Amino acid sequence: MDFKIKTRLGGFFIVILNFNMVISCGLKPLKVNEPKTVTDAVGIEMSSTNDSITLKYGAQYIGKRQDAEMKKFRANRLGQFIHWGLYSIPGGEWNGTTYLGAAEWLANFAKIPNATWDSLQYQFNPNKFNAVQWAKMAKASGFKYVTITTKHHEGFCLWPSEFTEFDIENTPYKKDLLKEFVDAYTEAGIDVYFYYSILDWHHKDWRYDIKNQADSLAFSKYFEFAKNQLLELQQKYPEVKGFWFDGTWDASWKKNGKYSYDIQKALKEVNPNVIVNSRLRADDFGSRHFDSNGNLMGDYQSGYERYLPAKNDTLITKIDWEACMTIPVNQWGYHKDWSLSHVKSANEILELIVKTVSLGGNFLLNYGPKGDGTFRNEELEISNSIGNWMSKYADKVIYYGDYANLKPQDWGYYVKNTNSGKFYGVVFNLPLSKLLKIELPNGKKLKVVNFETEKLEYHHHDKMGYFISLPENTPNEPFIFEILME
Ligand code: 16Z
Protein backbone atom coordinates (compact mmCIF):
# COMPACT_ATOMS: atom_id res chain seq x y z
CA MET A 1 0.00 0.00 0.00
CA ASP A 2 1.42 3.25 -1.06
CA PHE A 3 0.45 6.79 -0.31
CA LYS A 4 2.13 10.07 -0.83
CA ILE A 5 3.06 12.18 2.13
CA LYS A 6 4.09 15.73 1.47
CA THR A 7 6.57 17.43 3.74
CA ARG A 8 5.60 20.31 5.95
CA LEU A 9 5.02 23.50 4.08
CA GLY A 10 4.42 25.88 6.91
CA GLY A 11 0.99 24.88 7.96
CA PHE A 12 -2.48 26.15 7.98
CA PHE A 13 -1.92 29.66 6.69
CA ILE A 14 -0.70 28.59 3.29
CA VAL A 15 -3.61 26.27 2.91
CA ILE A 16 -6.12 28.97 3.80
CA LEU A 17 -4.39 31.17 1.25
CA ASN A 18 -4.70 28.47 -1.37
CA PHE A 19 -8.31 27.99 -0.51
CA ASN A 20 -9.06 31.69 -0.88
CA MET A 21 -7.19 31.81 -4.15
CA VAL A 22 -9.36 29.05 -5.51
CA ILE A 23 -12.47 30.97 -4.45
CA SER A 24 -11.37 34.42 -5.62
CA CYS A 25 -10.05 33.26 -8.98
CA GLY A 26 -13.29 31.43 -9.51
CA LEU A 27 -11.40 28.32 -10.51
CA LYS A 28 -13.41 25.18 -10.76
CA PRO A 29 -11.70 22.22 -9.17
CA LEU A 30 -10.49 20.21 -12.11
CA LYS A 31 -10.23 16.51 -11.96
CA VAL A 32 -6.91 16.25 -13.75
CA ASN A 33 -6.49 12.56 -13.44
CA GLU A 34 -8.32 9.80 -11.70
CA PRO A 35 -5.91 8.78 -8.95
CA LYS A 36 -5.16 5.13 -8.63
CA THR A 37 -6.52 4.15 -5.28
CA VAL A 38 -5.99 1.14 -3.12
CA THR A 39 -8.77 0.33 -0.70
CA ASP A 40 -7.85 -1.33 2.56
CA ALA A 41 -10.02 -3.38 4.89
CA VAL A 42 -11.78 -0.41 6.42
CA GLY A 43 -12.29 1.34 3.13
CA ILE A 44 -9.47 3.83 3.38
CA GLU A 45 -8.39 4.96 0.00
CA MET A 46 -4.74 5.71 -0.26
CA SER A 47 -3.84 7.54 -3.39
CA SER A 48 -0.73 6.62 -5.28
CA THR A 49 -0.71 9.33 -7.88
CA ASN A 50 1.76 12.13 -8.38
CA ASP A 51 -0.76 14.37 -10.06
CA SER A 52 -1.82 17.42 -8.19
CA ILE A 53 -5.55 17.79 -8.30
CA THR A 54 -7.28 21.03 -7.39
CA LEU A 55 -9.54 20.34 -4.48
CA LYS A 56 -11.96 22.51 -2.57
CA TYR A 57 -12.45 19.99 0.21
CA GLY A 58 -9.10 18.27 0.42
CA ALA A 59 -6.54 18.37 3.23
CA GLN A 60 -6.80 21.64 5.18
CA TYR A 61 -3.06 21.66 5.84
CA ILE A 62 -0.10 19.42 5.10
CA GLY A 63 2.31 17.75 7.50
CA LYS A 64 2.28 16.86 11.20
CA ARG A 65 0.84 19.51 13.50
CA GLN A 66 3.39 20.84 16.01
CA ASP A 67 1.21 22.91 18.35
CA ALA A 68 1.12 22.14 22.08
CA GLU A 69 -2.29 20.41 21.92
CA MET A 70 -1.19 18.01 19.21
CA LYS A 71 2.09 17.36 20.99
CA LYS A 72 0.09 16.50 24.08
CA PHE A 73 -2.15 14.12 22.14
CA ARG A 74 0.93 12.44 20.68
CA ALA A 75 2.72 12.20 24.04
CA ASN A 76 -0.41 10.72 25.67
CA ARG A 77 -0.22 7.65 23.43
CA LEU A 78 -2.61 5.52 25.48
CA GLY A 79 -6.32 6.24 25.55
CA GLN A 80 -9.48 4.60 26.84
CA PHE A 81 -12.33 4.15 24.37
CA ILE A 82 -15.82 3.92 25.86
CA HIS A 83 -18.89 2.63 24.02
CA TRP A 84 -21.95 3.33 26.12
CA GLY A 85 -25.53 3.74 24.96
CA LEU A 86 -28.92 2.05 24.87
CA TYR A 87 -27.28 -1.06 23.38
CA SER A 88 -25.57 -1.52 26.75
CA ILE A 89 -28.94 -2.59 28.20
CA PRO A 90 -29.74 -5.68 26.04
CA GLY A 91 -26.02 -6.54 25.81
CA GLY A 92 -26.32 -8.55 22.59
CA GLU A 93 -29.44 -10.47 23.68
CA TRP A 94 -32.95 -9.96 22.34
CA ASN A 95 -36.07 -12.01 23.11
CA GLY A 96 -34.01 -14.82 24.58
CA THR A 97 -31.61 -15.05 21.63
CA THR A 98 -27.96 -14.13 22.03
CA TYR A 99 -26.46 -12.65 18.90
CA LEU A 100 -22.80 -13.15 18.05
CA GLY A 101 -22.32 -9.80 16.32
CA ALA A 102 -21.15 -6.57 17.87
CA ALA A 103 -23.65 -5.65 20.62
CA GLU A 104 -23.91 -1.99 19.56
CA TRP A 105 -25.21 -3.20 16.17
CA LEU A 106 -27.94 -5.44 17.66
CA ALA A 107 -30.80 -3.18 16.54
CA ASN A 108 -29.58 -3.53 12.98
CA PHE A 109 -28.94 -7.24 12.61
CA ALA A 110 -31.79 -8.43 14.85
CA LYS A 111 -34.05 -6.18 12.72
CA ILE A 112 -35.59 -4.50 15.75
CA PRO A 113 -38.10 -1.79 14.76
CA ASN A 114 -36.99 1.75 15.58
CA ALA A 115 -39.88 2.43 17.96
CA THR A 116 -39.07 -0.72 19.95
CA TRP A 117 -35.37 0.03 20.13
CA ASP A 118 -35.85 3.70 20.91
CA SER A 119 -38.10 2.85 23.88
CA LEU A 120 -34.99 1.46 25.60
CA GLN A 121 -34.52 5.13 26.41
CA TYR A 122 -37.11 4.71 29.16
CA GLN A 123 -35.00 1.95 30.71
CA PHE A 124 -31.67 3.79 30.63
CA ASN A 125 -30.96 4.38 34.31
CA PRO A 126 -27.32 3.78 35.18
CA ASN A 127 -27.80 4.35 38.91
CA LYS A 128 -24.47 2.68 39.73
CA PHE A 129 -22.55 5.08 37.49
CA ASN A 130 -19.81 6.78 39.46
CA ALA A 131 -17.82 9.10 37.21
CA VAL A 132 -15.15 9.68 39.83
CA GLN A 133 -14.67 5.93 40.19
CA TRP A 134 -14.44 5.50 36.41
CA ALA A 135 -11.81 8.23 36.14
CA LYS A 136 -9.86 6.71 39.00
CA MET A 137 -9.86 3.33 37.28
CA ALA A 138 -8.81 4.89 33.97
CA LYS A 139 -5.98 6.74 35.63
CA ALA A 140 -4.77 3.63 37.47
CA SER A 141 -4.80 1.77 34.12
CA GLY A 142 -2.41 4.34 32.67
CA PHE A 143 -4.83 6.05 30.28
CA LYS A 144 -3.92 9.64 29.49
CA TYR A 145 -7.01 10.37 27.44
CA VAL A 146 -10.49 9.02 26.90
CA THR A 147 -12.86 8.95 23.93
CA ILE A 148 -16.52 8.40 24.79
CA THR A 149 -19.50 7.78 22.49
CA THR A 150 -21.65 10.87 22.84
CA LYS A 151 -23.90 9.45 20.10
CA HIS A 152 -23.48 6.09 18.38
CA HIS A 153 -25.32 4.86 15.26
CA GLU A 154 -28.55 4.35 17.27
CA GLY A 155 -28.76 8.15 17.62
CA PHE A 156 -29.20 8.26 21.40
CA CYS A 157 -27.35 11.19 23.01
CA LEU A 158 -25.53 10.90 26.33
CA TRP A 159 -25.91 14.60 26.89
CA PRO A 160 -29.03 16.80 27.14
CA SER A 161 -29.21 18.13 23.59
CA GLU A 162 -31.33 21.07 22.49
CA PHE A 163 -31.74 19.44 19.11
CA THR A 164 -33.39 16.15 20.00
CA GLU A 165 -35.59 14.51 22.62
CA PHE A 166 -33.72 11.25 22.16
CA ASP A 167 -31.23 12.03 24.88
CA ILE A 168 -30.23 11.45 28.50
CA GLU A 169 -32.57 14.16 29.73
CA ASN A 170 -35.55 12.01 28.74
CA THR A 171 -34.44 8.86 30.53
CA PRO A 172 -35.16 7.89 34.13
CA TYR A 173 -31.57 9.01 34.84
CA LYS A 174 -32.39 12.58 33.70
CA LYS A 175 -29.09 14.14 34.82
CA ASP A 176 -26.32 15.36 32.50
CA LEU A 177 -24.26 12.20 32.54
CA LEU A 178 -21.71 13.55 30.09
CA LYS A 179 -20.98 16.51 32.33
CA GLU A 180 -20.35 14.21 35.30
CA PHE A 181 -18.03 12.22 33.06
CA VAL A 182 -16.13 15.20 31.63
CA ASP A 183 -15.71 16.80 35.05
CA ALA A 184 -14.42 13.63 36.72
CA TYR A 185 -11.94 12.72 33.98
CA THR A 186 -10.72 16.30 33.62
CA GLU A 187 -10.23 16.47 37.38
CA ALA A 188 -8.16 13.27 37.18
CA GLY A 189 -5.93 14.87 34.52
CA ILE A 190 -7.27 12.74 31.64
CA ASP A 191 -7.96 14.52 28.35
CA VAL A 192 -11.51 14.04 27.07
CA TYR A 193 -12.43 13.38 23.43
CA PHE A 194 -15.90 12.83 21.99
CA TYR A 195 -16.88 10.04 19.61
CA TYR A 196 -19.76 11.13 17.36
CA SER A 197 -21.44 8.97 14.75
CA ILE A 198 -22.46 10.74 11.56
CA LEU A 199 -24.53 7.69 10.56
CA ASP A 200 -27.80 7.94 12.50
CA TRP A 201 -30.47 5.23 12.50
CA HIS A 202 -32.87 7.39 14.51
CA HIS A 203 -32.93 10.71 12.66
CA LYS A 204 -35.61 11.01 9.98
CA ASP A 205 -33.41 13.04 7.67
CA TRP A 206 -30.46 10.67 7.63
CA ARG A 207 -29.88 9.16 4.16
CA TYR A 208 -27.55 6.37 3.06
CA ASP A 209 -27.44 7.76 -0.45
CA ILE A 210 -28.63 10.85 -2.26
CA LYS A 211 -30.74 9.82 -5.21
CA ASN A 212 -32.92 12.86 -5.77
CA GLN A 213 -33.66 16.42 -4.72
CA ALA A 214 -35.73 15.28 -1.74
CA ASP A 215 -32.84 13.19 -0.40
CA SER A 216 -30.53 16.10 -0.91
CA LEU A 217 -32.81 18.43 1.03
CA ALA A 218 -33.33 15.96 3.85
CA PHE A 219 -29.62 15.29 4.11
CA SER A 220 -28.84 18.99 4.24
CA LYS A 221 -31.18 19.17 7.25
CA TYR A 222 -29.39 16.24 8.84
CA PHE A 223 -26.09 18.00 8.25
CA GLU A 224 -27.36 21.11 10.04
CA PHE A 225 -28.54 18.93 12.92
CA ALA A 226 -25.15 17.20 13.25
CA LYS A 227 -23.27 20.48 13.01
CA ASN A 228 -25.51 22.07 15.63
CA GLN A 229 -25.00 19.16 17.97
CA LEU A 230 -21.23 19.29 17.53
CA LEU A 231 -21.09 23.00 18.24
CA GLU A 232 -23.37 22.40 21.20
CA LEU A 233 -20.97 19.75 22.52
CA GLN A 234 -18.05 22.14 22.15
CA GLN A 235 -19.95 24.93 23.86
CA LYS A 236 -21.34 22.86 26.74
CA TYR A 237 -18.10 20.97 27.38
CA PRO A 238 -15.28 23.39 26.54
CA GLU A 239 -12.78 20.95 28.06
CA VAL A 240 -13.20 18.65 25.08
CA LYS A 241 -9.89 18.25 23.24
CA GLY A 242 -11.15 16.69 20.06
CA PHE A 243 -13.63 14.59 18.13
CA TRP A 244 -13.59 11.03 16.87
CA PHE A 245 -16.01 10.72 13.98
CA ASP A 246 -17.49 7.46 12.80
CA GLY A 247 -20.21 6.27 10.44
CA THR A 248 -18.85 8.21 7.48
CA TRP A 249 -18.64 5.46 4.86
CA ASP A 250 -22.05 5.83 3.22
CA ALA A 251 -22.52 7.28 -0.26
CA SER A 252 -24.48 10.25 1.10
CA TRP A 253 -21.47 11.42 3.12
CA LYS A 254 -18.90 10.62 0.45
CA LYS A 255 -20.89 12.61 -2.10
CA ASN A 256 -20.76 15.62 0.23
CA GLY A 257 -17.11 16.28 0.91
CA LYS A 258 -18.12 19.86 1.64
CA TYR A 259 -20.03 18.74 4.73
CA SER A 260 -17.06 16.98 6.29
CA TYR A 261 -14.84 19.92 5.37
CA ASP A 262 -17.27 22.40 6.91
CA ILE A 263 -17.60 20.46 10.14
CA GLN A 264 -13.86 20.38 10.62
CA LYS A 265 -13.67 24.08 9.80
CA ALA A 266 -16.52 24.97 12.18
CA LEU A 267 -14.97 23.04 15.06
CA LYS A 268 -11.64 24.77 14.43
CA GLU A 269 -13.26 28.19 14.41
CA VAL A 270 -14.40 27.56 17.98
CA ASN A 271 -11.13 25.93 19.04
CA PRO A 272 -8.25 26.28 16.55
CA ASN A 273 -6.37 23.48 18.32
CA VAL A 274 -9.19 20.96 18.39
CA ILE A 275 -8.08 17.50 17.20
CA VAL A 276 -10.20 15.74 14.58
CA ASN A 277 -9.71 12.21 13.25
CA SER A 278 -9.33 11.53 9.55
CA ARG A 279 -12.43 9.33 9.50
CA LEU A 280 -14.65 12.41 9.39
CA ARG A 281 -13.39 13.40 6.02
CA ALA A 282 -14.19 12.90 2.39
CA ASP A 283 -12.92 15.16 -0.40
CA ASP A 284 -14.53 16.53 -3.57
CA PHE A 285 -14.36 13.09 -5.19
CA GLY A 286 -15.40 10.99 -2.21
CA SER A 287 -11.87 9.97 -1.33
CA ARG A 288 -11.76 9.21 2.41
CA HIS A 289 -9.05 9.83 5.06
CA PHE A 290 -6.54 10.81 2.36
CA ASP A 291 -7.60 13.26 -0.31
CA SER A 292 -7.25 12.65 -4.04
CA ASN A 293 -3.70 14.01 -3.88
CA GLY A 294 -2.76 11.52 -1.18
CA ASN A 295 -2.68 14.07 1.64
CA LEU A 296 -4.09 13.17 5.04
CA MET A 297 -7.33 14.96 5.94
CA GLY A 298 -8.12 15.66 9.58
CA ASP A 299 -5.36 15.76 12.16
CA TYR A 300 -4.44 12.10 12.36
CA GLN A 301 -5.16 8.86 10.56
CA SER A 302 -7.77 6.80 12.41
CA GLY A 303 -8.19 3.81 10.10
CA TYR A 304 -6.52 1.04 12.10
CA GLU A 305 -9.51 -0.57 13.70
CA ARG A 306 -8.90 -3.95 15.37
CA TYR A 307 -5.65 -4.40 13.42
CA LEU A 308 -2.27 -2.71 13.28
CA PRO A 309 0.22 -1.76 10.60
CA ALA A 310 3.05 -4.21 9.89
CA LYS A 311 6.07 -4.04 12.19
CA ASN A 312 8.26 -2.70 9.38
CA ASP A 313 5.78 -0.13 8.05
CA THR A 314 7.98 2.94 7.95
CA LEU A 315 5.48 4.95 5.92
CA ILE A 316 2.96 5.08 8.76
CA THR A 317 5.61 6.62 11.02
CA LYS A 318 5.54 9.75 8.85
CA ILE A 319 2.05 10.73 9.94
CA ASP A 320 0.12 10.90 13.19
CA TRP A 321 -2.19 7.96 13.64
CA GLU A 322 -4.26 6.13 16.19
CA ALA A 323 -5.45 2.53 16.36
CA CYS A 324 -8.55 1.41 18.22
CA MET A 325 -8.90 -2.07 19.65
CA THR A 326 -11.50 -4.29 21.28
CA ILE A 327 -10.66 -6.76 24.07
CA PRO A 328 -12.77 -9.58 22.57
CA VAL A 329 -12.52 -10.11 18.80
CA ASN A 330 -15.29 -7.67 17.89
CA GLN A 331 -17.39 -6.18 20.67
CA TRP A 332 -17.49 -2.44 21.37
CA GLY A 333 -20.70 -2.02 23.35
CA TYR A 334 -21.42 -4.26 26.35
CA HIS A 335 -22.10 -7.87 25.34
CA LYS A 336 -23.25 -10.31 28.01
CA ASP A 337 -21.35 -13.28 26.66
CA TRP A 338 -17.66 -12.87 26.01
CA SER A 339 -17.17 -16.63 25.81
CA LEU A 340 -18.30 -16.38 22.19
CA SER A 341 -14.92 -15.15 20.96
CA HIS A 342 -11.27 -14.98 21.96
CA VAL A 343 -10.68 -12.51 24.77
CA LYS A 344 -7.23 -10.92 24.63
CA SER A 345 -4.97 -11.30 27.65
CA ALA A 346 -3.24 -8.34 29.25
CA ASN A 347 0.06 -9.40 27.65
CA GLU A 348 -1.52 -9.57 24.21
CA ILE A 349 -2.92 -6.08 24.70
CA LEU A 350 0.40 -4.75 26.01
CA GLU A 351 2.11 -6.06 22.89
CA LEU A 352 -0.41 -4.30 20.65
CA ILE A 353 0.12 -1.07 22.61
CA VAL A 354 3.91 -1.23 22.43
CA LYS A 355 3.87 -2.17 18.76
CA THR A 356 1.67 0.86 18.08
CA VAL A 357 3.96 3.21 20.00
CA SER A 358 7.01 1.73 18.25
CA LEU A 359 5.43 2.91 14.98
CA GLY A 360 4.64 6.38 16.28
CA GLY A 361 0.94 5.79 16.87
CA ASN A 362 -1.67 6.19 19.59
CA PHE A 363 -3.73 3.34 20.99
CA LEU A 364 -7.36 3.39 22.15
CA LEU A 365 -8.42 0.39 24.21
CA ASN A 366 -12.16 -0.13 24.23
CA TYR A 367 -14.45 -0.65 27.22
CA GLY A 368 -18.18 -1.39 27.05
CA PRO A 369 -19.74 -0.55 30.41
CA LYS A 370 -23.05 -2.15 31.37
CA GLY A 371 -26.41 -0.38 31.37
CA ASP A 372 -26.22 0.08 35.13
CA GLY A 373 -22.98 2.03 34.92
CA THR A 374 -20.56 -0.64 36.10
CA PHE A 375 -17.72 -2.38 34.26
CA ARG A 376 -17.59 -6.13 33.75
CA ASN A 377 -14.98 -7.99 35.80
CA GLU A 378 -12.88 -8.97 32.76
CA GLU A 379 -12.36 -5.27 31.98
CA LEU A 380 -11.51 -4.44 35.57
CA GLU A 381 -8.96 -7.27 35.66
CA ILE A 382 -7.38 -6.23 32.36
CA SER A 383 -7.20 -2.66 33.64
CA ASN A 384 -5.51 -3.83 36.77
CA SER A 385 -2.83 -5.84 34.93
CA ILE A 386 -2.21 -3.15 32.35
CA GLY A 387 -2.07 -0.51 35.07
CA ASN A 388 0.53 -2.43 37.02
CA TRP A 389 2.72 -2.72 33.97
CA MET A 390 2.23 0.93 33.01
CA SER A 391 3.17 2.14 36.47
CA LYS A 392 6.59 0.51 35.97
CA TYR A 393 7.27 1.09 32.30
CA ALA A 394 4.99 3.70 30.73
CA ASP A 395 7.09 6.75 31.55
CA LYS A 396 9.94 5.16 29.62
CA VAL A 397 8.33 3.41 26.67
CA ILE A 398 4.71 4.55 26.32
CA TYR A 399 4.24 8.26 27.08
CA TYR A 400 6.40 10.25 24.67
CA GLY A 401 7.24 6.96 22.98
CA ASP A 402 7.99 7.11 19.28
CA TYR A 403 9.47 5.34 16.27
CA ALA A 404 13.16 4.59 16.94
CA ASN A 405 14.20 4.03 13.32
CA LEU A 406 16.08 0.80 14.10
CA LYS A 407 15.78 -2.46 12.19
CA PRO A 408 12.89 -4.55 13.66
CA GLN A 409 13.81 -7.76 15.52
CA ASP A 410 11.76 -10.79 16.47
CA TRP A 411 12.10 -10.43 20.25
CA GLY A 412 9.93 -7.31 20.42
CA TYR A 413 9.94 -3.61 19.60
CA TYR A 414 12.14 -0.54 19.85
CA VAL A 415 10.84 2.71 21.24
CA LYS A 416 12.49 6.09 21.32
CA ASN A 417 11.41 8.35 24.15
CA THR A 418 11.14 11.85 22.68
CA ASN A 419 11.18 13.43 26.13
CA SER A 420 14.41 11.87 27.43
CA GLY A 421 15.93 11.02 24.04
CA LYS A 422 16.60 7.47 25.28
CA PHE A 423 16.26 4.29 23.21
CA TYR A 424 14.62 1.15 24.55
CA GLY A 425 13.89 -2.40 23.54
CA VAL A 426 10.69 -3.98 24.84
CA VAL A 427 10.89 -7.78 24.96
CA PHE A 428 7.77 -9.87 24.31
CA ASN A 429 9.29 -13.04 22.82
CA LEU A 430 12.13 -14.56 24.82
CA PRO A 431 14.58 -16.35 22.50
CA LEU A 432 15.59 -19.87 23.60
CA SER A 433 19.12 -18.86 22.60
CA LYS A 434 19.05 -16.38 25.50
CA LEU A 435 20.51 -13.83 23.09
CA LEU A 436 18.83 -10.67 21.85
CA LYS A 437 19.96 -9.57 18.43
CA ILE A 438 20.42 -5.87 17.68
CA GLU A 439 21.45 -4.41 14.34
CA LEU A 440 22.45 -0.76 14.19
CA PRO A 441 22.71 1.51 11.17
CA ASN A 442 26.14 1.92 9.58
CA GLY A 443 28.33 4.22 11.60
CA LYS A 444 26.51 3.51 14.89
CA LYS A 445 28.10 1.53 17.69
CA LEU A 446 26.49 -0.06 20.70
CA LYS A 447 27.98 1.27 23.95
CA VAL A 448 25.89 0.13 26.89
CA VAL A 449 22.84 -2.05 27.45
CA ASN A 450 21.03 -1.35 30.71
CA PHE A 451 18.61 -3.76 32.26
CA GLU A 452 17.17 -2.58 35.58
CA THR A 453 20.31 -1.88 37.63
CA GLU A 454 22.69 -4.11 35.67
CA LYS A 455 24.63 -3.73 32.43
CA LEU A 456 24.10 -6.61 30.03
CA GLU A 457 27.03 -8.22 28.22
CA TYR A 458 27.11 -8.34 24.45
CA HIS A 459 29.19 -9.57 21.54
CA HIS A 460 29.56 -8.02 18.15
CA HIS A 461 29.82 -10.00 14.94
CA ASP A 462 30.72 -8.39 11.64
CA LYS A 463 27.70 -8.04 9.35
CA MET A 464 25.48 -9.82 11.86
CA GLY A 465 25.23 -7.17 14.51
CA TYR A 466 25.18 -7.43 18.29
CA PHE A 467 24.10 -10.34 20.47
CA ILE A 468 23.13 -9.36 23.96
CA SER A 469 23.09 -11.89 26.78
CA LEU A 470 19.80 -11.98 28.61
CA PRO A 471 19.93 -11.50 32.37
CA GLU A 472 20.05 -14.65 34.57
CA ASN A 473 16.49 -14.17 35.70
CA THR A 474 14.19 -12.62 33.17
CA PRO A 475 11.01 -11.00 34.49
CA ASN A 476 7.76 -12.86 34.20
CA GLU A 477 6.28 -10.05 32.12
CA PRO A 478 7.21 -8.00 29.07
CA PHE A 479 10.32 -6.07 30.09
CA ILE A 480 12.55 -3.33 28.78
CA PHE A 481 16.24 -2.61 28.33
CA GLU A 482 17.88 0.65 27.43
CA ILE A 483 20.48 0.89 24.70
CA LEU A 484 23.10 3.59 24.46
CA MET A 485 24.73 4.12 21.09
CA GLU A 486 27.40 6.35 19.70
C1 16Z B 1 -19.95 -2.69 9.31
O1 16Z B 1 -18.74 -2.65 9.97
C2 16Z B 1 -18.66 -1.81 11.06
C3 16Z B 1 -19.37 -0.61 11.11
C4 16Z B 1 -19.26 0.20 12.23
C5 16Z B 1 -17.84 -2.16 12.08
C6 16Z B 1 -17.73 -1.34 13.19
C7 16Z B 1 -18.44 -0.14 13.28
C8 16Z B 1 -18.35 0.78 14.43
C9 16Z B 1 -18.49 0.03 15.74
O2 16Z B 1 -19.82 -0.04 16.15
C10 16Z B 1 -17.63 0.81 16.67
O3 16Z B 1 -18.19 2.03 17.05
C11 16Z B 1 -16.44 1.03 15.77
C12 16Z B 1 -15.38 1.96 16.35
N1 16Z B 1 -17.09 1.53 14.57
C13 16Z B 1 -16.23 1.58 13.41
Total beta strands: 21
Side by side, the strands of the main sheet go 9-8-7-6-3-12-11-10
Q: Biggest β-sheet, characterized?
A: 8 strands, parallel
Q: Name the shape in a single word.
A: globular
Quaternary state reads single chain
**What percentage of amino acids are in beta strands?**
15-25%
Provide the low-confidence segments as ranges.
1-49
Helices and strands, with pairings:
Layout: H1 12-24, E1 37-39, E2 45-47, H2 68-76, E3 78-82, E4 93-94, E5 97-98, H3 106-109, H4 114-118, H5 131-141, E6 145-151, H6 177-187, E7 191-197, H7 213-236, E8 242-246, H8 251-254, H9 257-270, E9 275-276, E10 301-305, E11 321-325, H10 346-358, E12 361-367, H11 377-397, E13 401-402, E14 412-417, E15 423-427, E16 435-438, E17 446-451, E18 454-455, E19 458-461, E20 465-469, E21 479-485
Parallel strand pairs: 3-6, 3-12, 6-7, 7-8, 8-9, 10-11, 11-12
Antiparallel strand pairs: 1-2, 4-5, 13-14, 14-15, 15-21, 16-20, 17-18, 17-21, 19-20
Helix pairs in contact: 5-6, 5-11, 7-9, 10-11
The chain binds ligand 16Z.
Task: Describe this protein's structure.
The protein has 486 residues and is of the alpha/beta class. It has eleven helices and 21 strands. The strands form five sheets. Strands 9-8-7-6-3-12-11-10 form an eight-stranded parallel β-sheet, with helices on both faces. Strands 13-14-15-21-17-18 form a six-stranded antiparallel β-sheet. Strands 16-20-19 form a three-stranded antiparallel β-sheet, with no helix packed on it. Helix 5 crosses helix 11 (377-397). It is globular, with a radius of gyration of 24 Å. Residues 1-49 have low confidence and may be disordered. It binds ligand 16Z. Residues 83, 102, 104-105, 246, 305, 324, 332 line the site of ligand 16Z.
